[in-house]
Amino acid sequence: MAKRALIVIDLQNDYFPGGKWTLSGVEAAAANAARLIAAARAAGEPVIHIRHEFPTTEAPFFVPGSKGSEIHPAVANRADEPVVLKHQINSFRDTNLKELLDARGVDEVVICGAMSHMCVDACTRAATDFGYKVTVIHDACASRDLTFGNTTVPAAHAHAAFMAALGFAYATLLSTEDYLGNAAIAA
């Protein structure tokens, strides 16, 4: 039987209204992530939180030691849940994430968090490359408007494009409702 863990990526204060780098739909994504966390805890599955800090105080957001770099209260970790501090986009790079998963015998990961087009994308691809079965809960992830040259890509389109790419070859994509319904059926 597969051993599953939930990875909650970068749902930190700076991404929420009033923060330095507000994401579109982050409050709804965090509410869904909170439901996933509650379900994982109830099932006795590991929950691993990822927290990003830039290595310098000149950072545009997630400044080391700042209130903005703290995990948002809606998805706060419990004392027995590890928090992986990262300084890179990929949650596996230069961290102990893989060691934490392997020590728990995990072979399947469920990913949610922010940003869809950066850290969620990088973690999903890396997890697949490491051989984990990956599920991304698309409505528990958030993005923001992007620009490329003179083109503005609305957050919803950026999110959709990255989810489409991940769903093509890297992960199973599910809504929170579908995932929680499937988890209940599997239990």
Sequence-ordered SSE layout with sheet pairings:
Layout: E1 4-9, H1 26-43, E2 47-52, E3 83-86, H2 97-103, E4 108-114, H3 116-129, E5 133-142, E6 146-148, E7 151-153, H4 155-169, E8 172-174, H5 176-186
Parallel strand pairs: 1-2, 1-4, 2-3, 4-5, 5-8
Antiparallel strand pairs: 6-7
Features of this protein?
alpha/beta, about 190 residues, two-stranded antiparallel sheet, single chain, Rossmann fold, about 20% strand
Please give the CATH architecture: 3-Layer(aba) Sandwich
Count of individual beta strands? 8
Number of domain units = 1
Determine the fraction of residues in helical runs and give it as a percent range.
25-40%
Number of helices: 5
Report the major sheet: 6 strands, parallel
- Structural class designation: alpha/beta
Q: H/E series, N to C?
A: EHEEHEHEEEHEH
If you average the pLDDT, what whole number results?
96
What is the CATH T-level topology? Rossmann fold
Q: Poorly predicted ranges (pLDDT <50, ≥5 residues)? A: none
State the name of the first-level CATH class.
Alpha Beta
Q: If strands are numbered along the chain, what order do they take across the biggest sheet? A: 3-2-1-4-5-8
Assess the beta-strand content as a share of residues. Answer: 15-25%
Describe the structure.
This protein is of the alpha/beta class. The chain has one domain (4-186): Isochorismatase-like (Rossmann fold). Helix content is 35%, strand content 22%. The protein has five helices and eight strands. It has helices at 26-43, 97-103, 116-129, 155-169, 176-186; strands at residues 4-9, 47-52, 83-86, 108-114, 133-142, 146-148, 151-153, 172-174. A six-stranded parallel β-sheet has the order 3-2-1-4-5-8. The protein has a two-stranded antiparallel sheet with strand order 6-7. It is globular, with a radius of gyration of 15 Å. The N and C termini lie close together (12 Å). The model has no long low-confidence stretch (mean pLDDT 96).
